[in-house]
Write a structure and sequence with these properties.
- This protein is α+β, with helices and mostly antiparallel strands.
- The chain has one domain: Arenavirus RNA polymerase (Alpha-Beta Plaits), CATH 3.30.70.
- Helix content is 29%, strand content 14%.
- It has a four-stranded mixed sheet, sandwiched between helices.
- Helix 2 (107-127) links the parallel strand 3 (93-102) and strand 4.
């Protein structure tokens, strides 16, 4: 009988207790990026807003996905609904966040696909083609594999842009990897079910120690 083993992760994304072949596929991916973002963009303004597509129904149909913030641009269609948007009207800064959870055999292809998907929108925002405002627009495409492997360069750039360092970065990474492995476990358990019951979002953030 095939069983699923819930394993712990090291901070670099390698599975402990797994065989050598699986461990190799769980190492962080590396990629070269252009356009280095500014460090800790959240320090530049005090009016940042955050929007994430967390509606359960968006999983089944794109029509339920949250629209791109209209105060930035009126857009629709392909490349207009990133998973997350962080923006400041005061400093005219907008950050698009796209999370991909994938099988770990071909991460670069998926990463490049997401970069190309939102390239047009990013270019138009930078050139001021929406409402005449030239935005400092940045895009972060972050990947997390089914077994917890992550895109090291993309992850590091995103964390640095938001001022997330050291222990906070490690804690966030551990929570993300734990969520990925728990979801993979759930999919495995439901592999023979034709209909799945909707599940609540996974809360894997550790409880702060009592002072």
């Amino acid at each position: 009988m095939h069983t699923y083993k819930h394993t712990q992760f090291k901070s670099e994304g390698v599975l402990e207790g797994d065989d050598e072949k699986k461990a190799k596929t769980s190492k962080p991916w590396k990629a070269v990026h252009s356009d280095k973002p500014s460090k800790n963009i959240l320090e530049n303004a005090t009016d940042y807003k955050v929007q994430f597509d967390l509606e359960e129904n968006s999983i089944a149909s794109n029509k339920w996905a949250k629209r791109f913030p209209s105060e930035i641009a009126i857009v629709s269609g392909e490349g207009s609904c990133p998973d997350g948007v962080v923006w400041s009207m005061e400093k005219q800064v907008v950050v698009l966040l796209e999370l991909t959870s994938l099988w770990e055999e071909n991460p670069k292809k998926r990463h490049d696909f997401k970069l190309e998907k939102y390239e047009r929108l990013i270019t138009k925002l930078r050139e001021g083609q929406h409402n005449g405002v030239k935005w400092n627009a940045q895009l972060f495409c972050v990947e997390i594999g089914a077994r917890g492997a992550y895109h090291e360069m993309a992850w590091g750039r995103m964390c640095s842009a938001f001022g997330i360092y050291k222990e906070a970065r490690k804690t966030l990474l551990d929570a993300m990897q734990t969520a990925a492995i728990q979801c993979s476990h759930f999919i495995f358990l439901c592999r023979f079910q034709q209909n799945w019951t909707p599940q609540a979002l996974r809360d894997t953030w550790p409880t702060p120690p009592k002072v």
